Amino acid sequence: MNSKANKFLNFKNMVVLITGSNGIIGKELCKLYLDLGADVFGIDNKKNSLKNINYTHFVGDVSDEKFIIKKLAYIIKKKSKINVILNSAAISIFTHFEKRTKKEILKTLDVNLIGTLNVIKSYVKIHSQKKLKSCRIVNFGSIYGIKSPDFRIYGKNDRFNSEIYGASKASIIQMTKYFGVMYIKKNIFINCISPGGTISEKNKISKEFYKKYSSRTPINRMATPKDLFTAIIYLTNSETKYTVGQNIIVDGGMTAW
Fold first, then answer.
1. Residue 15, H or E segment
2. How far apart are CA 174 and CA 166, in angstroms?
3. Is 241 exposed, middle or buried (0-12, 13-18, 19+ CB in 10 A)?
4. Banded pLDDT at 1 (limits 50, 70, 90)
5. Distance separating alpha carbons of residues 227 and 30, to the nearest angstrom
6. Does residue 9 carry a pLDDT above 50?
7. Structure confidence at residue 139 (pLDDT)
């Protein structure tokens, strides 16, 4: 492999911040960037069992702006930079829409939308103050920020994807375009990835739902976190210099059908 090709997978000495670092996708992203040689910082409202000399975990809520500012300042003070930020923190709710409470709606928006906004806003401020060189931010949307779920595939005991989750993800996709255009002049590249249904051993679903969901994708299966890796590496690579404000859909072709 020549030196130019090596650059695409070389994250050595880079500093990566991952929110939702204890989640299904977030935890695998932590492992990925550690394997690629980066120093990784994680934020989640739960502890993380990941043990690595190059990993630092913060327990806290992304919707708490003061907490985010404090942790960003800590990382910058220690490392003098943040090369990559992955905003993967998200929650959903599964109560029936007609019984949905205002508290549930606001909590979803707080974490998914306000949390992402807090990280971007706080980073941009410190980026300007410290005159940092560059950063690549990837927000996490969802196919359900683009389309409605197919309610025919859900059984009685399956967890329906909520309307407020989809609304929050649609907002993130639009916010990515807005801030991507606004902050590229500061050499901050902001893009978005929208996964399809993603599973791991920890989020058990019924065999019937898996079969029905898979039948809606040309690839005929659901995603795993590793299916997102190549798109995320592309968006966070220092050699990617002409992609701004974009939303890359990784869904096995579901939205193309």
1. strand 15-19
2. 13
3. exposed
4. very low
5. 15
6. yes
7. 98
Burial class (CB in 10 A: 0-12, 13-18, 19+), 89: buried
Mapped onto helix, strand or coil, the DSSP state of residue 41 is strand
Beta bridge partners of 250: 195
Number of other residues whose CB lies within 10 A of the CB of residue 129: 10
Return the biggest CA–CA distance within the chain: 58
What domains can be seen in the chain, in order of their start residue?
Answer: 3-256 (3.40.50.720)
202 confidence band (pLDDT: 50, 70, 90):
low
Please indicate, yes or no, whether the overall pTM of this predicted structure exceeds 0.85.
yes
Distance of alpha carbon 211 from the chain centroid: 26
Measured CA to CA, the distance from residue 32 to residue 97 in angstroms comes to 37
What's 204-252 look like in SS3? CCCHHHHHHHHCCCCCCCCECHHHHHHHHHHHHCCCCCCCCCCEEEECC
Coil, strand, or helix at residue 19? Answer: strand
Mean residue pLDDT of the chain comes to 94
CA separation for the pair 251, 240 (Å, rounded): 22
Mean pLDDT, to the nearest integer, of 150-161?
A: 85
Q: What is the C-alpha to C-alpha distance for residues 40 and 155, in angstroms, rounded to an integer?
A: 39
